[in-house]
Amino acid sequence: MFFKNITVLNENFEVCENMYVGIKDDKIEYVGTEVPDELYSYIYNSEIYDGAGKLMMPAFYNAHAHSPMTLMRGYGEGLSLQDWLEKKIFPFEDKLDGYAVYWGTMLALAEGIAGGIVSSTDLYYFSPDEADAVLDAGAKMNISRSITHFDDSNPLNSPRFREMEYLVKEYHTGGMRRLLTDVSLHAEYTNTEKSCKAVADFAYYNRLNMAVHLSETKREHEECKARHGMTPAAFFEKTGVFNTRTTAAHCVWLEEEDFEILKRKEVIVATCPISNMKLASGIADVRKMLDLRMNVALGTDSVASNNSLDMFEEMKFAALCANIKTGKASALTPKELLYMATRAGALAQGRLDCGKIAKGMKADLQIIDLEKANLCPVHDLRTSLVYSAHSGDVVLTMCDGKILYRDGEFLTIDIEKARRTVNILTKKILGELN
Ligand SMILES: [Zn+2]
Fold first, then answer.
1. Given Cys at both, which of 54, 67, 129, 272 links 98, Cβ 3.0 to 4.6 Å?
2. Residue 80's pLDDT band (boundaries 50, 70, 90)?
3. All residues at 6 or more sequence positions from 24 whose CB lies less than 8 Å from its CB, including other chains
4. Dist. CA 380 → ligand 1 center (Å)
5. Topology (CATH level 3) of domain 60-348
6. Which of 333, 355, 353 lies closest to 11, judged by CA?
């Protein structure tokens, strides 16, 4: 496929107009201001896309999500995190099965793909069913079986640990590496020292990424200190959790030494501003993290606490949160926010060849319609992308060179079936709960 006359957010996250971009197989092979000499090789049996009035930018990499929770969108509103989990979410989740997880994931993938997201770092269970949905939809995911372990029994014998092992054995690098299996510990408060060590060792020896929730609420943070005499970050460091590439979601209540631990261990923070505000958890100090040269990526968290998968919204809220936190009206630059939502997420997922529009990178990209009312006029395009654009402005999403969504049509997902099935399953589960 060949794009002509298109505006591009280039590899340095700068805006370049009237560009030509050539895609071959799953890669970006050409980006330039001139028509390439070997133009015929891009258009042979393929298409020339007229990019007038359009912008090409890297696709989004959502650094923290629980995709199957579309089934719980809008359920249990108005509660703080602990009440929300214990009274609403956990009882609902007890009723789930693999079929519900497959279709819940499919609906989340549709919503994400239509808004430019090609990949998410996803923690959940019934993971093989979730993985099947990702492979069927042609998207990417860093998927993990979220581990919880409450008692003193050997964690290696738990069904959760077994599901994690099965997932890694059967699915790691599936779909030409679109699917990568990570390892995840749900959180400090849902695990024991023994289970943290066992899961950390498994990740380390299998060279897998780790994902955790960390210091999301003040209560979680303080209770960990009372339980272990140290913060969640210190506890995870002590139990070896950070010895592999780790993405830590939230990080709202970090203390001075926690920043140092996360920086030293090169932990990537997945900040989830909308979820944190919705559940009244607090505001992470993202400006401070970036000033310390820590890695920060952006996550939506689940739609049960968001309630949508819109990375444009997430960029905007991250910016606004940082303004409130610092008292400065330009705490994060649009360039930093665009980087966090794309390249930083790809790096967090260990996808080093993703997240930039540059020669040799994977062709994971989105096309934005710049001729929308909400994008007029434009003084600075990056500012418009962060503060004015929304997921509805995406007109094409490509993953590994394959178009998944174009002009309102899904090419790999039966959206009607996904919507219908999720509606039926949600009603059925609510019927059982009441
Ligand atoms: Zn989460």
1. 129
2. confident
3. 41, 42, 401
4. 33
5. TIM Barrel (3.20.20)
6. 355
* CA-closest candidate to residue 137, choices 405, 422, 421, 420: 405
What top-level class would CATH report for the domain 2-58+356-410?
mainly beta
Query: pLDDT category, 340, cuts 50, 70, 90?
Result: very high
- Looking at the chain, the domain(s) classified CATH 3.20.20.140 span 60-348
Distance 182 CA to ligand 1 centre (A): 15
Q: How far is the CA of 2 from the centre of ligand 1 (A)?
A: 38
Å from CA of 302 to ligand 1 middle: 6
CATH code 2.30.40.10 region(s) in the chain: 2-58+356-410
Taking the centre of ligand 1 as the mean of its atom positions, its distance from the CA of residue 66, in whole angstroms, is 6
For residue 301, the CA-to-ligand 1 centroid distance in Å is 5
Distance from Cα 64 to the centre of ligand 1, integer Å? 6
**Cα 271 to ligand 1 centroid, rounded to whole Å:** 10
pTM score, whole prediction:
0.97
The dihedral region occupied by 221, where left means phi > 0, alpha psi between -120 and 50, and beta the remainder, is alpha
CA 292, CA 360: separation in Å to the nearest integer?
30
What confidence tier does 433 reach under pLDDT thresholds 50, 70, 90? very high
Model confidence at 135, pLDDT cuts 50, 70, 90, reads very high
For residue 323, pLDDT over 80 is answered with yes
Q: How far is the CA of 332 from the centre of ligand 1 (A)?
A: 23
Q: How far is the CA of 252 from the centre of ligand 1 (A)?
A: 13
CA neighbor of 348 nearest in space, from 59, 131, 120, 11: 120
CA of 27 from ligand 1 middle (Å) equals: 31
Taking residues 127-151, report their average pLDDT.
97
Contact between 393 and 357 under an 8 Å Cβ cutoff? The reply is no
Cα of 187 from ligand 1 centre, angstroms:
9
